[in-house]
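User: I'm putting together notes for a lab meeting next week and I want to include a structural view of one of the chains we've been expressing. I don't have a solved structure, so I'd like a prediction I can at least talk through. The sequence is below, exactly as it appears in our construct file.
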Amino acid sequence: MPELERHRTNPGYRTDKKQVFIVGCKGIPAAYGGFETFAENLTKRKKSENIRYHVARMAKDNARYEYNHAKCFNVRIPDLGSAKAILYDIAALRRCIQYCRVRPSVQHPVFYVLACRVGPFIRHLKRQIRKLDGILLVNPDGHEWQRGKWSRPVRAYWKFSEKKMVKSADLLICDNRNIERYIQEEYKEYRPQTLFIPYGSDVQLSASSDEDGRFQNWMRENHLSPGSYYLAVGRFVPENNYEIMIREFMKSDSPRSFVLITTIDRDFSGLLEKRLHFSEDARIRFVHPVYDSDLLKKIRENAYGYFHGHEVGGTNPGLLEALGSTSLNLLLDVCFNREVGADAALYWDKREGNLASLIEEADRLPEERRADLGRKARARIAEAYNWEDIVDSYEKLFLSL
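Assistant: Thanks for the context. Below is the predicted structure for the 401-residue chain, given as C-alpha cells.
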C-alpha cells in the first residue's frame, strides 16, 4: 500500500496533537440532528491547539475535506435501509483505524462512537484499537430499543448491541444523568466506567430582526403572526407523541394554531388522519422543515409556546434550543425532560384531557408568569448546558486520556 509505505519510511512525519475520531453522526456541517449539532459545536468552538478532530460523514463518495479546522472524510455506503447506519459506523471506524495504522507517530488515539449501533462487531474492532494503544469512548444516546418505529427483531438487535457496546467501551459518556444511572444499574455486572457531559445550547437571540424578509415571508406563507401559534419541531415518529399532542390540542378551545415543523412520514400521518381527522381542524398546521438555523430560532422566539413530547431518552437538543428561545415550554413529564427543564417549564402526561387542560391554562397565563418562565429557562441553559463549559469538559477529557 503506497500510503502505508510513505508514512513508515518518513521518519520526519510526526504529530504531537491528540487525534480524536468522531464516528456515528451524519457529518458536518450540521443540518438537523443532535449528534451532528454536537460535532459542529465541538469543532467550531475548539480551544486547545493540542487536539486534532476527524469527523466521518455519510455521503455518496469518499472525498476528504476540512471544516472547522477538522479533518472530515466521506464514507460511501449503499442504501440498505436500517442496516445502512450500521455499515456506515463500521466502515468509518475501519477508516479511522487505518489512518492511525499508517501513522505510527499517532499516540493513544481516541475513537468516540456516537450511539450503540455496532455492538455485535465491536469486539473485533476493539482489538484493532488496542493494538494502536487507542481508547474507545461511546455515547449510549437514549433508549433506541424502545422506539416505536422499530419492529421487535430490530428492537432486540438494539438492546443486544447496546449491551455489547457497554461491555467493550473504555468509557461511556452520557448526556443525561438518568441515562448514566440506567447504564450503571442495567449493566452493573460489567462495572461500566461512565461520565456525565451534557449536550449544549445557547441563549443568544436570533440575528434576524422582526422585519427580516425570510421571517416575514415564512409568517406570511403560513398565515401566522408573532404569538399566534404553539410550535413543535422534530422527527415525525410515534415515540415523540405527536398523536397525543394533536388530539389534545384539538380537544382544547385554544384560539391559537399548532404548527408542526417536521418531515412528513406519509404512512404515519395517514394513520393519524384516520384516527384524528386533524385535517378538519384549521388550527393544525404541518410545515416543511426549516434548515436555516437562525430563521428557526426566530420562529421559536415568536411562538407563544413550545410542545415537547419526546420520551425515549437522553437530552434532546431540540428541547435545549426551545428552552433557550421560547418563553413557555410544555414538556411531557418523563425523567429526561424533568432533568433538563427543572422548574422552568410546565409538564403534561398521557392521561386523556391532561394536555388539553394545560393548553387552556397556558392560554390564560399572565404575561408576567410566562416571562418569568422564559427567564428561568434561559438561565437553566446558561448555567447547565452552555457550550463553553461542555467543550472545556471534552477537551480536558481527551487530553487526559
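A couple of points you could mention at the meeting. The CA atoms of residues 248 and 281 lie 12 Å apart. The chain is about 45% helix and 15% strand.

User: Perfect, that's what I needed.
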